[in-house]
Specification:
Helix content: 40-55%
Strand content: 5-15%
Order of helices and strands: HEEEHHHHHEHHHEEHHE
CATH class of one domain: Alpha Beta
Distance between the termini: 29 Å
Radius of gyration: 26 Å
Number of helices: 11
Structural class: alpha+beta
CATH topology of one domain: Chitinase A, domain 3
Number of strands: 7
Shape: globular
Largest sheet: 4 strands, mixed
């Protein structure tokens, strides 16, 4: 399971990859010193056919197959996906040239190693190549596409790194390091969640839990989060001091409502929360377990914490710069080939409609919540239960719903709609 999650993470860190044939060979072949050419017609080098100069790439029953016959279905099937990879890579190169930033193969190799180390955490380094091959084959991602993503990220990192380091020079104070220490080595909680699109779905989950259904079963049948569902809804450990999931700012903030539930006085392992709202989605939580504080001295890990904070800032800088390049692509990309142009326009239109639908749903839910609040009996807080003076719901901490500040959500969740699998699209120019 850990490796499966790591596989999803590797794609997320690499920016997402498109579906493509899985049998694309790695670009590494031996070239003989003296070329040997078979004289049979089928094995001749590319030749111009007597059909307007269209190169022949193969024969079948002595009939030629030309390059144009191959190009059309390839463009229709994979052309837009590959084009978007090429566009992002080219924009990164343009940006590097503007800022006089140099890069080489060593930078690409370092980015690949960094990505695999993060994605295949816990695996032996010598196993990385085999694990990556298995992952790409399972996800039907061509190695050439993955390599373009790695190269793009490496170039963006070379641009962002000096800028971020200059900005962070005086920002990593001892107080900030102490907060990071407490978040990493203090008491941690591990929870599971079921993400719902609206309060009505959340109430259905609560009713089914009350009827005795297992939480993990409902994760797979009702949760809208396709990233956490395969791991039974389990989220990364967090502490009272944690700001971001996994202490990585690119993964979003830990909602305050989640902390309130997990660290409420008397909170017990196995308890369920009431409905907790976070960034447009509604969550039912289960307290899975608590992890006791680790016996580690602050001074012993202080410099490691500093390095980690710097790396997180660089990762965030890469994320921001990548989004800027995506915006540049949307504004400057002009596709001339008719098939690719139609595919791109259709994708842009679908993205606009999806964004509009999500905005409409959020507005509808906001209106319903206001109506419910207005129509509440007496429009006043309910009397205090002497057996429960804190007002905490019987199933655990939280409110109904507990609204978290914008931007606080479980990792990889940005909307109430079920997210697409991470490997289902090319670099997304709609973000």
């Amino acid at each position: 399971m850990k490796r499966l999650i790591g596989g999803a993470l590797i794609l997320a860190l690499a920016g997402g990859c498109a579906r493509a044939p899985s049998n694309t060979p790695k670009a590494s072949v031996d070239v003989p010193a003296t070329p040997v050419i078979d004289a049979s017609p089928i094995h001749q080098p590319l030749a111009a056919a007597d059909m307007g100069g269209d190169p022949i790439i193969a024969h079948v029953n002595d009939k030629p197959i030309t390059l144009s016959q191959l190009q059309k279905p390839l463009i229709e099937a994979y052309g837009l996906e590959v084009l978007l990879y090429v566009v992002q890579l080219d924009l990164a190169k343009q940006k590097a040239k503007e800022q006089h930033v140099n890069y080489n193969q060593a930078d690409f190799d370092a980015e690949l190693t960094r990505t695999m180390k993060s994605g295949f955490e816990g695996a032996a380094k010598e196993d990385y190549p085999a694990l990556l091959e298995q992952l790409l084959d399972k996800k039907r991602i061509a190695r050439v596409e993955f390599d373009m993503v790695i190269q793009t990220n490496a170039i963006i990192r070379k641009i962002a790194e000096p800028q971020v380091q200059a900005q962070m020079k005086d920002q990593i104070t001892d107080a900030r390091l102490k907060d990071a220490f407490n978040a990493l080595y203090g008491e941690n909680a591990i929870i599971r969640h079921i993400q719902c699109a609206n309060p009505q779905e959340a109430e259905q989950v609560k009713a089914r839990l009350a009827a005795g259904e297992k939480f993990e079963t409902l994760v797979h049948t009702m949760s809208r989060n396709a990233i956490t569902a395969p791991s039974d809804g389990e989220l990364p450990p967090f502490s009272r001091q944690s700001q971001a999931w996994g202490n990585d700012a690119t993964k979003g903030k830990v909602p305050q409502g989640f902390k309130d539930f997990a660290f409420a006085p008397g909170a017990k392992v196995g308890e369920f929360s009431d409905t907790i709202q976070a960034d447009g989605a509604y969550h039912i939580l289960k307290l899975e377990r608590k992890v006791e504080p680790k016996v580690v001295k602050f001074e012993d890990v202080k410099e490691n914490l500093r390095t980690d904070l710097q790396e997180q800032a660089i990762t965030q800088g890469v994320f921001i710069l990548r989004n800027q390049l995506a915006q540049m692509a949307r504004e400057s990309l002009k596709i001339e080939e008719p098939t690719l142009k139609k595919q791109y326009d259709d994708r842009q239109d679908a993205a606009r409609k999806a964004a509009s639908a999500q905005a409409d749903e959020r507005a509808r839910q906001d209106l319903l919540n206001k109506i419910k609040a207005t129509n509440a009996p007496g429009n006043a807080p309910a009397p205090t239960d002497p057996k429960n003076p804190s007002g905490t719901p019987a199933g655990g901490a939280g409110t109904s719903p507990a609204t978290a500040p914008p931007g606080e959500q479980p990792p990889a969740t940005k909307s109430a709609a079920p997210p697409a699998p991470v490997d289902s699209k090319a670099p997304d120019l709609n973000k």
